[in-house]
């Protein structure tokens, strides 16, 4: 069997590699956003693209999110495959009308005459003292918009694979990238690959409890799992990756095995991904549950600038350990 060749990349480099490969493969792929050209993007995902692909395919825009997102949707209607970068995902709230009323619905409202193969991506989540307006988690805002798919990357491997799959998708896809994960390093395959946009990832098989998480919280959960294993627990960890639609097959198979569920997210507790996921599990797998579904979410407050206060608003590993002990009973 031939040896699988791999190369090591940081997550922002994996995103760049995936985007660059798709731009080379398909001349209809283009990038639109603030500082994506000569500057190379706020986190260097498009570094070098302006020189390689030219300013018509790597289009620097004014600070006008509603306008350039609408331009990208119009470009998609004509056959292009735009990738919109939000310098910070919180800024894309200024484009909410374009994303909700046009991006998500034009395929339906046009009677199928148009497809909208747009990717909307950029850094989000709670960073380190970025303040409330730069610490948004937009997945809760967009999950109820019909017609949108949403995925969250968490490793260099799935960042590249999800980027490539999102660009090839005929549906509009929002790709969430956590600002604190860009410098994660991992060896990824040299050969081409994509990740399925609708599949969850089994991070750790187990038998005692199913822990469902995504994005940065994947690492808080795996850190907590070390303590839990030392205390005699065997948690199953699933990175749901697809925030819309949920991979209910993978989730359901795990629930049927463990019969207990804990959801861990950085999203807000009220109206967040966890609330929707808990509802979906109770609706589909109620008879498989041996107890209530736990859900650990961020506090329903604006994210403080103060470092210690900011940390208190986000789920920490020790809280995950306590929640598992409460749901499973102490060993």
UniProtKB/TrEMBL annotation:
Protein name: pyruvate dehydrogenase (acetyl-transferring)
Domain called Transketolase-like pyrimidine-binding: residue spans: 9-184
Organism superkingdom: Eukaryota
SUPFAM superfamilies according to UniProt: Thiamin diphosphate-binding fold (THDP-binding), TK C-terminal domain-like
Keyword terms, alphabetized: Oxidoreductase, Pyruvate, Thiamine pyrophosphate
Record-level Gene Ontology MF annotations: pyruvate dehydrogenase (acetyl-transferring) activity
Broadest EC class assigned to this enzyme: oxidoreductase
Enzyme Commission code(s) on record: 1.2.4.1
Upper lineage: Eukaryota, Viridiplantae, Streptophyta, Embryophyta, Bryophyta
Biological function: The pyruvate dehydrogenase complex catalyzes the overall conversion of pyruvate to acetyl-CoA and CO(2). It contains multiple copies of three enzymatic components: pyruvate dehydrogenase (E1), dihydrolipoamide acetyltransferase (E2) and lipoamide dehydrogenase (E3).
Gene assigned in the entry: LOC112276394
Catalysed conversion reaction: N(6)-[(R)-lipoyl]-L-lysyl-[protein] + pyruvate + H(+) = N(6)-[(R)-S(8)-acetyldihydrolipoyl]-L-lysyl-[protein] + CO2
Swiss-Prot/TrEMBL cofactor(s): thiamine diphosphate
Pfam families xref list: Transket_pyr, Transketolase_C
Family matches, as Gene3D superfamilies: 3.40.50.920, 3.40.50.970
